[in-house]
Design goal:
The complex is a heterodimer of chains A (403) and B (216). Chain A is an alpha+beta fold and 403 residues long. Helices cover 38% and strands 21% of the residues of chain A. Chain A has helices at 17-36, 83-91, 136-152, 172-181, 186-197, 201-210, 215-222, 231-240, 243-262, 306-309, 323-333, 352-364, 378-385, and strands spanning 40-41, 47-49, 67-69, 75-78, 101-110, 122-131, 165-171, 227-228, 267-271, 284-290, 298-302, 316-322, 343-347, 369-372, 389-394, 397-401. In chain A, 39% of the residues are buried. Chain B has 216 residues and is an alpha/beta fold. Chain B starts with a strand and ends in a 6-residue tail after the last helix.
């Protein structure tokens, strides 16, 4: 029995008219930014082998992947992420291409979201990957692209959005450095990471109490509290008092100043406690926030070890924009209206070809022209749809009808 | 001025405890006391508003960022597993999750797969997964204590406060699963976008609850 023929699976939806228009606004804007920075688009398949997503660098929870098998029984997944497929392409077909590679994508990713929590399985993303450089300028390039997205995404909208945006910088190397020196079991370390990610101060303190009181545990206690503006660097220096960590902090602070000088009205903030479990990031981490959306709308960072998992050991940095989230934020302030056609062309029987020729000529001048499919009711159609002009084509040639 | 900071409170006892805490910090909670049937209530002098919701909904609202902060029990947080910041253990609403079974019944004996009745299937699953134990979980909506008495389950995982209900029904705790108390949670973006306001409030709350002379 067909029970599900009229609905879409949970977490997916049809995008119609305004929803589609909002998404296009975001996609077009970001595409312009990426293209103008020298990025080339690539399209990866919707289906990939499971193995592409089963690596050391990043953990994809099994239960969130949409899985299926191919004709030979091999496990495939519907793309849950675009960076891994791009790493795969870079490590194979692009292995001999000159570096750096600048690639961008605009395509959905699929992750089963927890049921009935208002989240989507299908999320449209657009993003860039800059492969083959570990330079400071590469970081600045990617962050400035993120800044451009935040600051100009409302440019093509006729109303002023006037919303606050923030760009956040972090660096997982500080956490890694501390964990490297901490004496604890892998399970304990994983729990500490979870607690720092959740900024769960009380439980983190309890956990670290068990591991004794030394410089490392005291630093870990403070790590999730180290977020805010530039004052964070001074506070961090005091907390850590360590040469190697100070070197990371100094380079972060220099980057922070560079970015802030570019940021305009976007706030630039720092969080040294950004330590996400599912990330493949090895250094810089970036997140972008927009007022009115409860999660990050941009996320990215440096992933210098990911390509090595595919047998091509080159550094890389990138970021992705959640198109649905940005469209959602814009949609709260601006509803795109469906624009009616400029001209309606109605053909008498036998004059269809003449009507097509007439319409094509008008379209060449930039007008949007529709055909009246029923010549009799053309006036009424034009009026209900709000089409300003009606041209009738028949034995007497072209005749503009006054509406 | 920005829109008020929205705080979702778990209706019932946690709401009362939180209101008492806010009042002891000097906020005017008259509107919350005289709420009638309204669900969104202003705290005029704090540029805050209070939203009253069921525990699980507090997490949903905070996770989506439609509320900036929330007060909710650790029990619901463990069951729902949301992506948010859990900043403060407020200290009130203390109790625990425990595994209980019929008194003097050796729960772990035998090789059969145990059946556990609970209102908290995720907490239960995580607890037994850590032990490497396969169990059948039966979700019960009302008094979970009935299930072992009626012979449906070998044991229960439930919230235990004083243990009186267990005792009166001939049940006893086998093992504690986790400690529970009320937590102050914050949306991950709100904390960053409105850091100063939220941190100032959090600091006041922490000072209050850590002050031994002034336990709420």
């Amino acid at each position: 029995m067909r029970r599900y023929d009229l609905i879409t699976p949970e977490g997916t939806r049809d995008y119609l008219f305004e929803e589609c228009a909002l998404k296009r606004i975001v996609e077009n804007r970001t595409r312009e930014i990426f293209k103008s920075m020298g990025y080339s688009r690539l399209i990866t398949p919707g289906l990939e082998f499971y193995d592409v997503f089963s690596l050391n660098s990043r953990y994809f929870p099994q239960e969130e992947l949409c899985k299926l098998t191919d004709q030979k029984g091999r496990l495939m997944v519907v793309r849950p992420d675009s960076t891994m497929p791009i790493a795969r392409v870079a490590a194979t077909r692009l292995k001999d291409a000159p570096l750096p590679l600048r690639l961008y994508y605009t395509q959905p990713v699929y992750n089963f979201a927890p049921s009935l929590k208002g989240r989507s399985t299908e999320v449209h993303q657009t993003g860039i990957e800059l492969i083959g450089s570990e330079s400071r300028m590469a970081d600045v390039e990617v962050i400035s692209a993120a800044l451009s997205v935040l600051s100009t995404v409302g440019k093509d909208v006729p109303v002023k959005l006037g919303m606050n945006c923030s760009l956040e910088l972090g660096d997982v190397r500080i956490f890694r450095e501390l964990m490297h020196r901490l004496t604890a079991t892998p399970a304990q370390k994983e729990e500490i990471r979870d607690l720092i990610e959740a900024k769960n101060y009380p439980a983190l303190n309890d956990m670290l109490d068990k591991l004794g009181d030394d410089r490392i545990t005291r630093a870990l206690r403070k790590l999730p509290t180290l977020f805010g503006g530039e004052e964070v660097f001074a506070r961090a220096a005091e907390v850590f008092q360590d040469e190697r960590i100070q070197a990371i902090l100094d380079s972060m602070q220099a980057l922070y100043r560079t970015i802030r000088s570019l940021a305009g009205e976007t706030n630039v903030i720092v969080d040294l406690g950004l330590v996400n479990k599912t990330d493949y990031y090895t250094g810089l981490v970036i997140k972008g926030y927009m007022e009115g959306y409860g999660e990050e709308v941009i996320s990215g960072g440096r992933y210098d070890k990911l390509l090595a998992d595919f047998g091509y050991d080159v550094p890389a940095v990138g970021m992705a924009v959640n198109v649905d989230a940005v469209a959602n934020v814009i949609g709260k302030k601006y509803a795109p209206r469906a624009v009616p056609a400029d001209v309606l062309v109605a053909a008498e029987a036998g004059y269809e070809a003449a009507a097509v020729l007439c319409a094509d000529k008008l379209r060449e001048t930039g007008l949007c022209v529709e055909y009246a499919l029923d010549a009799e009711s053309a006036e009424e159609h034009a009026r209900t749809r709000g089409i300003a002009r009606l041209i009738r084509i028949g034995a007497e040639g072209e005749k503009e009808v006054v509406l | 001025m920005d829109r008020p900071i929205r705080i979702a409170l778990t209706k019932g006892r946690l709401e009362k405890d939180t209101v008492r805490l806010l009042e002891s910090l000097g906020y005017d909670c008259t509107a919350v006391h005289e709420k009638g049937r309204r669900l969104i209530l202003p705290i005029p002098d704090g540029n805050m508003e209070v939203v009253l919701a069921k525990a699980a909904d507090v997490i949903t609202y905070v996770e989506h960022g439609v509320c900036d902060m929330g007060v909710v029990g650790k029990d619901t947080l463990m069951e729902m597993n949301g992506k948010l910041f859990e900043l403060v253990d407020l200290g009130f609403g203390r109790c625990k999750f425990a595994l209980a079974t019929k008194k003097d019944h050796p729960f772990y004996d035998g090789f059969g797969v145990k059946t556990i009745a609970t209102k908290y299937p995720n907490v239960t699953r995580a607890f037994f997964e850590r032990k490497g134990m396969d169990v059948d979980i039966v979700k019960i909506e009302g008094s979970v204590e009935l299930a072992p008495l009626l012979g449906l389950a070998d044991g229960i995982v439930d919230i235990v406060e004083t243990g009186t209900t267990l005792k009166e029904n001939g049940l006893a705790v086998v093992e504690d699963v986790a400690k529970i108390s009320a937590r102050l949670i914050v949306n991950t973006v709100s904390l960053k976008m409105r850091q100063q306001e939220i941190e100032a409030l959090v600091r006041k709350v922490e000072e209050k609850i850590n002050d031994p002379a002034d336990q709420v």
